[in-house]
Known about the structure:
Blueprint: H1 3-15, H2 30-63, H3 66-91, H4 102-113
Helix pairs in contact: 2-3, 2-4, 3-4
Amino acid sequence: SALPSLQQAVQDIEGSSVEEAPFNVYFDGPGFQDVEIRETLRGDVGLSLAALVMAVVLLTVYLCNVVVSLVGILMIAIAVPMSYMLAAGIFGVSSLGVLSALPLFLVLGLGLDV
């Protein structure tokens, strides 16, 4: 993928003085949007895992039971794959786009917020 080298070139240009590079560089095209979304999701997954671990710890302290805490988190996490399986069975959806991963963060956030 050429995106990392292009991003590095932009950082080099933007890091220089305004007199040397008085312009902004934007990338566009069919492949760049998917790559940027994947990179953002990759970063967000780490943050979500940290929040998930913190939620398990807090639930364990609140409920005084590790098993109940883990089962509760597991039930929340299984909601998204189950919905995809139902969509595939009922509507015949055979492939998922990049943006299909976003409901995972939404369901985990709403499920842990209750």
